[in-house]
Amino acid sequence: MNYQDRNAATSHVEPATVAGHTPISPERMRRAVIIAGIVIAAVAALLVGYNIIGNIMMKRFFASNVPAPVSVNFEAVKTSTV
């Protein structure tokens, strides 16, 4: 058995560990990236939707907002000497 035969028999390559932690498999990493992307997209969609709905509601409020009538008191002018 030569060097090539020994390496061919071990097709599974152990990923390097970092600071004694268990390595993460590529499938698990891919799944984590996909989930993180979905969460980020959902948060961005919520923020954009909130902004759009807020603008629509603000336009409706100001379109139907009528200022209150101003009350004015009148009094007859009298002249007098000081």
Describe the structure in your own words.
The chain has helices at 3-9, 26-64. It is rod-shaped. The model has no long low-confidence stretch (mean pLDDT 83). By secondary structure, the chain is mostly helical. It starts with a helix and ends in an 18-residue tail after the last helix.
Q: Give me the count of strands.
A: 0
Distance between the ends: 128 Å
Number of helices: 2
Q: Give the fraction of residues assigned to helices.
A: 55-70%
Radius of gyration: 37 Å
Which blocks of ≥5 consecutive residues have pLDDT under 50? none
Given the C-alpha coordinates, what overall shape results? rod-shaped
Q: Main β-sheet: number of strands, strand sense, barrel status?
A: none
